[in-house]
Amino acid sequence: MSGPVRAAILQMTSGIDPLANARTLTAAISSAAGEGAAMLFTPEMSGLLDRDRQRGAASIVAQDSDPVLAAVREAAAQHGIWVQLGSLALRGDDGRFVNRGFVIDADGAIRATYDKLHLFDVDLPTGERWRESDAYVPGARAVVVDTPLGSLGLSICYDVRFPDLYRALTDAGATLLAVPAAFTRPTGAAHWHTLLRARAIEAGVHVIAAAQTGSHADGRTTFGHSLAIDPWGEILLDMGAPAGLGLVEIDPARVTDVRGRVPAIVHRRPIPPVTRA
Questions:
Q1: Can you tell me whether residue 18 is helix, strand or coil?
Q2: What does each of the 277 residues of the chain score in pLDDT, given as a tens digit?
Q3: 77: which of 8, 36, 212, 258 is 20 to 30 A away, CA to CA?
Q4: How many Å is the maximal CA-CA distance in the chain?
């Protein structure tokens, strides 16, 4: 790989109609390819965002039957662009729900899948209460996949608060991290930029975080501010609040440069047992 590679980020306001969301995704794939992007990144729950679980369950199907996934794969192949489909709500093999991300290549083939490891169960000071584990089961593996932008480590939203995952991904060779998200406004305003910059700095990697934004059909609001961050922690792109498509140049050589200056990833050591004094 030589020289910078153009990436596209889709900031969405996903709703409760998967087919409408699919149209937004396929239009973005066409636009990203037209802008010369090698890869498009989309947010968590790109295909359906519905906090009414009874209503949403009617639209949650197995991977092989999901119309959003099928539309994205077809559009990726048509336009010759890779897609990191942030995540979809799907039925797993045992019938329970999974929050699953995908890497789809320029032929429309699925190169990798990742099920969200850490589920968002919180009570916020605003009165918002979220219990992702009431409906979803966590994943059981961490995933790194080769892409046109480098070795990509996959994660989803709440995972960003658990640095051990990113240590494992970068120990396995990841030079780029995807953190698709649907952050609430309170947690986003407080922690979004800080956490994502920390994940980039601690391992000397690029971070791309495609986010949900605005007021959604199910009544929730999300923070937006999709980000691209370089290995030194500099913000290359902050998309603010509006939905839309952003473009950013990712230079893989920047990883080598930063790790040469501060080789923290080389200095990692196993942590010994904690002694309580």
A1: helix
A2: 568 999 999 999 999 999 999 999 999 999 999 999 999 999 999 999 998 888 999 999 999 999 999 999 999 999 999 999 999 999 988 888 999 999 999 999 999 999 999 987 666 666 666 677 778 899 999 999 999 999 999 999 999 999 999 999 999 999 999 999 999 999 999 999 999 999 999 999 999 999 999 999 999 999 999 999 999 999 999 999 999 999 999 999 999 999 999 999 999 999 999 999 9
A3: 212
A4: 62
Contacts 24+ apart (CB under 8 A), 66-71: 66/18, 66/90, 67/18, 67/19, 67/22, 68/18, 68/19, 68/21, 68/22, 68/25, 69/102, 71/22, 71/25, 71/26
Q: How far apart are CA 88 and CA 71, in angstroms?
A: 13
- Measured in residues, the chain has a length of 277
d(CA 64, CA 146): 23
**How many whole angstroms separate alpha carbon 76 and alpha carbon 73?**
5
pTM confidence score: 0.95
The residues annotated as belonging to the active site are 44, 116, 157
Q: Which amino acid, residue 142? A: A
